[in-house]
Structures are given as structure tokens and as C-alpha cells.
Amino acid sequence: MRRSRSEIYRHRCVEAWSIVVPWVGYSFSTLVKLVEPNSNARYVAFETYFDKKQMPLWGRAGIQLPYVEG
Predict the structure, then answer these.
(1) What CA–CA distance (Å, rounded) separates 51 from 69?
(2) Nearest CA to 41 among 61, 70, 2, 12?
(3) What whole-number distance in Å separates Cα of residue 47 and Cα of residue 53?
(4) Which residues are CB-neighbours of 54 under 8 A, at least 6 positions away?
(5) Which 8-state DSSP code applies to residue 60?
(6) Residue 60 to residue 63: CA distance in whole angstroms
(7) What are the pLDDT digits (tens) for 7-44?
(8) Around Cβ 54, how many Cβ atoms within 10 Å?
(9) CA torsion angle for 24, 29, 39, 50 (degrees, to 10)?
(10) Which of 21, 29, 27 lies closest to 67, judged by CA?
């Protein structure tokens, strides 16, 4: 398996917010190889990690958690 990598993402939303996010993890292609989707798969959904004990301010996030993106 490939090693994780570190990147900086700059998100600029059309709704006028922006955020800079440091990210350490695996490339999309590495994740797909780990999951081994079947040939009928058309979409991918990602769900954030969410643990109320480790994230005591989760109620202030302003979004529903865990966050899901496709």
C-alpha cells in the first residue's frame, strides 16, 4: 500500500465562505483499491469521523454530523 501524503486544501464556496484545511491521508485511487467496489458502482460517498466524546463542540459545527459528501 502506498504511504499517506500531506496536502493543503483551500476550499472557496460559492456561498461566500472559505477555509484552509491541512490534510494527511491516502489518495483517492488508494482508497478505491482498498474498498474494491464492484463493476456496478457508479458513485462514491464519504462520511466524516464523528465521536461526541472526542468532539465536545460538535453542536457548534453549523452542519449535521457526521458530514456526508458524494
Answers:
(1) 18
(2) 70
(3) 18
(4) none
(5) G
(6) 8
(7) 888 888 888 888 888 878 887 788 888 888 888 988 88
(8) 8
(9) 0
(10) 21
